[in-house]
Design brief:
71 residues, mainly alpha, 54% helix
Length: 71
């Protein structure tokens, strides 16, 4: 970089370095970009997660438990 700055000047060197970074990073970013979180089992940020709330009787029934005697 120092050699390029001495040969071409700092403005040209910065322009060339920026072009090289863009030439490397833009295709890499396009390759790794994931546009549909649903395909990977995720939900978008705006979507609220689906939450199912069961009452105590349903929890006992689903787990195969018996209710304790209340004497």
């Amino acid at each position: 970089m120092e050699r390029g700055r001495q040969a071409c000047g700092w403005q040209t060197t910065c322009l060339i370095m920026g072009g090289l970074r863009a030439a490397i990073m833009l295709p890499l970013g396009a390759l790794l970009y994931r546009d549909a979180p649903e395909r990977y089992g995720l939900a978008p940020d705006e979507a609220a997660p689906r939450r199912i709330v069961y009452g105590p009787e349903e929890v006992y029934r689903r787990r195969g438990w018996r209710r304790p005697d209340r004497s």
